[in-house]
UniProtKB/TrEMBL annotation:
InterPro entries reported for this sequence: AAA+_ATPase, ABC_transporter-like_ATP-bd, ABC_transporter-like_CS, ABC_transpr_LolD-like, MacB-like_ATP-bd, P-loop_NTPase
Keyword terms of this UniProt record: ATP-binding, Nucleotide-binding, Transport
GO cellular component: plasma membrane
Domain of life: Bacteria
Protein name per UniProt: ABC transporter ATP-binding protein
SMART domains: AAA (SM00382)
The keyword Transmembrane appears for this protein: no
Database matches in CDD domains: ABC_MJ0796_LolCDE_FtsE
Gene Ontology MF term list: ATP binding; ATP hydrolysis activity; transmembrane transporter activity
A Pfam family annotated for this UniProt entry: ABC_tran
Length: 235
């Protein structure tokens, strides 16, 4: 398993009491599969993603990323693990206005200490994978909303993560562009072998999933893993 949550409980202060955001959640995400975590607003989806990303430490339970348990890790060690093994696609692309599409990706590699020439080659490869090779020299204001989200996805893959975490990637897109982004994520997951978790309240995205997890009031109420589709049927 590339991502495993076992018995995870997370609470937040709520006046004199504590509010339970996640209640004994267990979830296995095999490599090369897309898990869609569905549920209404306030159900615990974002908390699950934050715990999986090691951005938040749970009260109890274990989180294992690519075979490494995060229990007892220092903040610096968790940061290193995220940089090495976890890609995060935020709800809003938050691209840097002054940088071109290819430069958005190069920055990620440079932070990780990679050589500029090698970083550019990797960035161009990923932009081609998301269908944006021809837009590599364009800045965010020259790209459509769907194109900006594709740059966001490519940027998250820049350091070749084993785990990809995606937060409501279609919330600012229309149905057609949103469906294209979901299809792209499914294809990249299968091609690159990432353990991908996508949280959404839009149930139309469930058909793209290899595994569907339902979250309600902080509890994982249902989790079904579908048999992998034949390679010829995958995009």
């Amino acid at each position: 398993m590339s991502l495993n949550l076992t018995g995870v409980t997370l609470t937040y202060p709520d006046g004199e009491d504590r509010l339970t955001a996640l209640d004994q959640v267990t979830l296995d995400v095999p490599k090369g599969t897309l898990t869609v975590v569905a549920g209404p607003s306030g159900s615990g989806k974002s908390s699950l993603l934050a715990v999986a990303a090691t951005l938040v430490t749970p009260d109890s339970g274990t989180v294992t990323v690519d075979g490494t348990s995060t229990t007892g890790m220092s903040r610096r060690a968790r940061t290193d693990l995220r940089r090495r093994s976890v890609g995060i696609v935020f709800q809003q692309p938050n691209l840097l206005a002054s940088l071109t599409a290819v430069e958005q990706l190069q920055v990620m590699a440079q932070i990780d200490g990679r050589r500029p020439a090698r970083a550019r080659g990797r960035a161009m490869e990923l932009l081609a994978a998301v269908g944006l090779a021809a837009q590599a020299g364009r800045r965010p204001h020259q790209l459509s909303g769907g194109q900006r989200q594709r740059v966001n996805i490519a940027r998250a893959l820049m350091n070749d993560p084993t785990v990809l975490l995606v937060d409501e990637p279609t919330s600012a897109l229309d149905h057609e562009r949103g469906a294209a982004v979901i299809d792209l994520l499914a294809r990249l997951t299968h091609e690159r072998g990432t353990a991908t978790v996508l949280v959404t309240h839009d149930r139309t995205h469930l058909t793209a999933a290899d595994q569907v997890a339902e979250v309600d009031d902080g509890r994982l109420t249902r989790c079904a893993l579908r048999p992998p589709a034949p390679a010829a049927n995958r995009r």
